[in-house]
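Reopening this ticket.

The earlier resolution said the output was attached, but the attachment link was broken on my side. Pasting everything inline this time so it's all in one place.
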Amino acid sequence: MPTTAEDQPSVRNLYLIVILVAAAVYIGCMISPPFLMDDVDAVQAQIARNMITSGDWVTPRLDGVIYLEKSPLIYWMIAGSYQVFGVHDWAARVPVVVFCIGLAVLTAAFAAWAFNRLVALYAGLSVATCVGLFLFTRIQIPDVILTFTITLAMWAFLRVLDENEARPGWWAFVLAASIGAGLLLKSLIAVVFPVGAALAYLACTRQILSARVWKRLRPFSGALIILLIAAPWHVLATIRNPPYFVFTMRSAPGEYHGFFWFYFMNEQLLRFLNMRYPRDYDTVPRPLFWGFHLLWFFPWSVYLPAIFRLRFQMKGELDRAARTRLLALCWIGFVMVFFTFSTTQEYYSMPIYPAVAMLLGGAMAAGGAWIQGGTRVVSLMVGLAGVVCLSFFLLTRGVAAPGDISQALGHHPDAYKLSLGHMEDLTLGAMAYLRTPLALAAVAFLFGSVATFQNRGRRTFLAMAVMMILFFQAARLALVAFDPYMSSQPLADAINKAPQGRLVVDHHYYTYSSVFFYTNRMAFLLNGRFNNLVYGSYAPGAPDVFLTDEQFRERWRTAERYYFVVDERGLERIQPVVPDIRANVVAASGGKFVLTNHPL
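Inline output:
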């Protein structure tokens, strides 16, 4: 069904709707609780604070140990937020929230340029309210910002090639600058993805050997812009963390080869080949990696079959819409094939979200039987989901919910390599702690079922967006209930209120990273010389923060006060070494404890 001018929103309404929907989803998520979670969430926040405190904006550090795994731009952004708003957990979330909203707006702007404003509206809503973007931005990883830079680069690429573009030189600069910024976010894939997708597009359109095309792209001046943006940090990091150039393919414990080898050889090449040490990462099985996208794009994934009814062509005169559809296919295909042959996590495919959203937006605007059928499917699915949520809400009415949710959860560590693995830990008893989120989720889904059942075109899609806004607020409330289990902030609060003493944390830094953020102090790590900090621990001048069991016992017996952060499993392991370890409990939360060696 062709779209007429009367069907389309005004420019003002287009961006107002997309911004309001995205803001309704993400701005509230800055607020604490939920607090910063243990693992990477609090790690990112603390690295940024350490940069401000130390004045060293080149070499990231954790607990005084150099941490060379990641590019620094996300840390600089968080640190900049601290400088403006002060050091708060919510301030650490500002950059990710801003770019979540920005990505939805950018996707809408790209689609408006390529197609029309109605497609743009649907594409922006699809990005703003899909499950994947919400789920994978609950922690402060830079992937949404990387996705923004890649999307901007892809749009700039098409605008450079557009014969009707009035300012191709400007867009060539935007293309290069986006890639340069991406390099400071997630290293070489920020170059590989847009360049790979662009080359695939040029090959499909038989322009890859066209001198005219390469002249418009300005590859030499573009390379210079990329270097001007990205090279200074890489050069400084190499100089400050020698040796400078090592190219060995051997990645083994106890060896230190400086920044250049670790960042480029170990983190890029050897990780791609699954030869990296330490192997502190899992990889998602390929069928799950592909299949989970039905969930990541939900509820809009019900319209994915309609994409295949769009017009795709590689030959003849291509209009702007046809060029964008073809580029979207190349973009999606390159990223997905790349990770099919590499180690991968579920969120690694986030850079394809805008491309999929634009194709979905085109299919939704075109309408037809496939779209109507998809709407019926989503109406049935969310109706059933609403009934399930309501049933759990009613079943738990008489179930007691003492303490926190951790004591009612199961334990399935083998499932935790998946982003939703903790769902297997839920029991009926645990649902009693989630009654408010269940009620709100039931309202959201039942509203969505009724609204989509009527199948009234644009109103249906707007109703689906409202449904997802409500559902994401329910999900946020559920995270608040999980706070004692996922974060150690209550333990940090107890430490801050207790008399002064030195801190020891069981296991490695990531296990209780929120303790470091909320106490803002260094700590000894008991048997924690592995995974993320092991490489930096062998750097010249690395602080001696790693304790063995014997060293811990000796310190615990001294007159100096120590606090020990540990969970039940860790207590069972250390108790034979220090039999009276449980004598003085300072605080307990989420199955974790703060103990001290002297009575308070």
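Reporter confirms the inline version is readable. The chain has three domains: 68-366, 377-475, 489-596. The first strand starts at residue 61 and ends at 62.
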